[in-house]
Amino acid sequence: MTDQDSLVRNVSDTALWVAYFRAQETLRPDKLFSDPFAERLAGKRGFEIARTLPQGSSHEWAWMARTYLFDRFIAREIAEGATLVLNLAAGLDARPYRMDLPPDLQWIEVDLPGLVAYKEEILAGEKPVCRLTRYPLDLSDTENRRRLFDDINQRASRIAVASEGLLIYFTPEEVASLAKDLAAPSHFESWTIDLASQGQLELMQRTTGKKLSEAGAPFKFGPREGPNFFAPYGWRSADVQGMLKTAAQLNRAPAELLALLPEPRDPYGKYPWTGVCLLKRTPSA
Fold it and tell me: Quick one: pLDDT band at residue 4, thresholds 50, 70, 90?
């Protein structure tokens, strides 16, 4: 790999890339959210990754829609009674600093040790608006994540889980295992995820995904079943919002993609679809 290509060294570097898009949205006069920490968190490397990856600075509308939808779903869960948010693979997300949150809300972030250390260094002088705790943990470590989930389950009676930008890097078997582990604790009520269709996964694997695969961060998860993939593991689909549809409603969708609307009734096969899904724990789980 050339020096330019090796800007993405591992999966953690994708967090710098995503922070770049949040920084770009924050600069817009018509911004849909403001993340004043994103530029610092992205750093020089985040901007370089966006400019050198194939289509690395493209599809800004999709990144905007994903952040916007996660903000809305998380805020809704808190309004409906969640007193703890568990943010898995939190990356360089700054929601505990930038969102309007109850000061007594517990917010727990989990991510790889190196990424947690970097984030704490960059945000050392900032104060979150709620009660924030971070745990350095590789979520592929099933034994320790189950132990952590059991511990967190004792801290609140209504817990909302969010995992933005995580599942696409897991195999279907790994996603199923995580879903079962999240359904086991009795107080984990909801789980907000982003999801790609099978067709979108294949498209991404042919473009940006090639360079990410070389860096050990291949795209893997785009289930044909869509949100129904999670039903056997204790989760039902409560709300699904497509990113292109959301971007179009907010006047951000590129004109050349509007022909893909309206979405088909079953967009999860070969149709190039991405969305954000709110899953609810089934009573029997």
Answer: very low
pLDDT at 58: 65
End-to-end CA distance of the chain: 46
Least confident of 42-56, 113-127, 158-172, 239-253: 42-56
Residue 247's alpha-carbon distances to 204, 251, 252, 258, in angstroms, are: 19, 6, 5, 10
Alpha-carbon distance of 95 to 188, in angstroms, equals 20
Taking the C-alpha atoms of residue 119 and residue 127, their distance in angstroms, rounded to an integer, is 13
CA distances (Å), 197 to each of 170, 225, 258, 263, 284, in order? Answer: 14, 9, 18, 12, 27
CATH 3.30.1360.120 fits 60-281, yes or no: no
Going by their DSSP bridges, the two strands 159-163 and 188-196 should be labelled as parallel
Give residue limits of the domains in the chain: 60-281
